[in-house]
Amino acid sequence: MTNFAFIMDLLKITAKQFLAYGFDHTLISRWRSGKRRIMPGRWQVAVIAKFFLETDAKRDHPLLPRLLEIWCPAVICTDESERQALLEIFLTEKGQMEPGYQKKRAVRLYCLKNSSSDSHPTPQGVEAVRLGLLDFLDLMANLSKPTQFYFVFTEGLSIYLDDADFGSQFIEKLLRLFKAGHRMHSILHSDTAVFEAWHFHRLKLNVHLEGYVSTQYYSDYMRQGSERILAVAGDEYALKVTRENHLDDNSARISIYSNPESIADVNRDMRKYIIRAKSQTYYGYFSKPNGWFKNTVVKKENPCHLFTRLPHLGIAQPNELAGQFTLSGDELAHLNQEFHPLTLDPSYFNDDTSIRHIFCESDIENALTKERHLSYELSAILGRKVWMSKQQLKQQLERILFMLNTRRNYEVCFLSSTQFADLMMQIGVWGNEAAISWIANKPALSCKDYLLVTCFQNLCITTWKDLPDETRDPTAAIRKLKQWVEV
Question: How far apart are CA 335 and CA 379, in angstroms?
Fold first, then answer.
């Protein structure tokens, strides 16, 4: 079905009604089936569009203005000539018979075909929401200058992100916006945090560390209305997803607005969540710890994951760090007080606690070619260049080898530089109590909120399981370690 056929059926127009304009049944049939395209700029399309608009205007509830609003949400038609021009574009678009186009049209405009008395039907269903979210990001990509845009999610995104094709498109479009200078502030319900991690995985943390996204959470369980997603992009666009029946995902409706009044309404709805939202993460932890983890006690029985390029921390006992990195007494005290999760070595944990380490073999081999190498983490923490000697690095590798041979639940793997880059960041997670993640030359992120730390723990577990079996093979790790320490 072509757009021409779609409108004919929508308005219940017969082929016979076109005879007065010189269009016979054969031509109408070809336009309907797509065997012949209605060409832009020709007199025929102008006649057809005008006839459609005149016929629709006689209805109690005209549908074509809403069709054009849904299909082209960024375009505001103020008079009939503008609506005529937009309808001509709709009738002459390329690729109308392609499966992807057919699906998009069916999802977006399904509400029109089932509208009898509703004067303002909106796209409905999960697929319609997905398309609307992508439309909203496309509209932002056409803004003349970068903007801060806001999203409020009163429920999890899993019903939308479970679709792999949509998820990849959504993330790709977001990354393009970030690259163009746009920044996002999101507000989530705290009980969705764990579930959202399974969908955004490493990307979500990475965009936070890069400064593209900031997130706050609200924890009360009182629904403020039917809204499920709210979004505003400056004074240009706003979006609202509503669902009256919270048990029926397909009852969701989506609307995109570009008029000031509707944008102001969405902004007012968003304020109800913004004033209750709090940050559960802390940025800039390395340079200004501010006592963030001073009262945090890491339980000895919970899993520990530490994925870092070089084995600087989390291997040797805290009292050995001064000798390893030539730290002063004050520096060691500062490290132990403010950054104690990073100083915890495997001996701190119970014998049966799972401990997993990932390191970058390329960085290790490069460091072994030098007499000393820089520790980025400690340099950022102490505000000066902190070095580890080649001999101290070999001792760290010997400790890892010893633990692999003696500690039942200790696992380690070494990734190539390319593989480690795919992780997108370095991260440490200790049970449900503490999480720290960082990228070189960017503010480190830390978190002690139970739900979010659990989210990061799940992220690490997923990352580990996704590694190839041969990469996680302990015999491969032991073989590398023996080569490096020349055993």
Answer: 12
Neighbouring residues of 455: CB distance < 8 A, sequence distance ≥ 6: 193, 194, 196, 197
**How far is CA 258 from each of CA 1, 34, 69, 220, 403, rounded to the nearest angstrom?**
30, 33, 10, 31, 61
Confidence of residue 423 (pLDDT cuts 50, 70, 90): confident
Phi, psi of 312 (to 5 degrees): -90, -45
CA distance 59 to 13: 12
Show contacts of 103-106: CB within 8 Å, 24+ apart. Answer: 103/127, 104/131, 105/3, 105/6
Q: How far apart are CA 227 and CA 219, in angstroms?
A: 16
Evaluate whether 312 touches 321 at the Cβ level (below 8 Å). Answer: no
Query: Beta strands 445-447 and 281-283: pairing type?
Result: antiparallel
pLDDT top residue among 197 and 55 = 55
Q: Give one word for 344, left, alpha or beta, with left for phi > 0 and alpha for psi -120 to 50.
A: beta
Cα separation, 136 vs 61, whole angstroms: 26
pTM: 0.72
Residue 142 has a pLDDT of 87
Which residue type occupies 382?
Answer: L
Q: Facing residues of 428 across strands? A: 306, 436
Please provide the average confidence, as pLDDT, over all residues in the chain.
Answer: 88
The structure tokens listed for 188 are: 């989530």
CA–CA–CA angle 92, 5, 44 (5° rounding): 45
User: Token pair for residue 487?
Assistant: 């055993």
Show the domains of the chain with their CATH numbers.
3-113 (no CATH), 126-279 (3.30.870.10), 304-485 (no CATH)
Query: Exposed, middle or buried: residue 261 (CB in 10 Å: 0-12, 13-18, 19+)?
Result: exposed
Q: Which helix (H) or strand (E) holds 185?
A: strand 183-189
Q: What are phi and psi of 207, to 5 degrees?
A: -70, -30
DSSP bridge pairs for 217:
188, 278
Euclidean distance between CA atoms 136 and 130, whole angstroms? 10
If phi > 0 it is left, if psi is from -120 to 50 it is alpha, else beta; for residue 385 that is: beta
Residue 379 structure tokens: 């340099």
Which of 400, 426, 309 lies closest to 346, judged by CA? Answer: 400
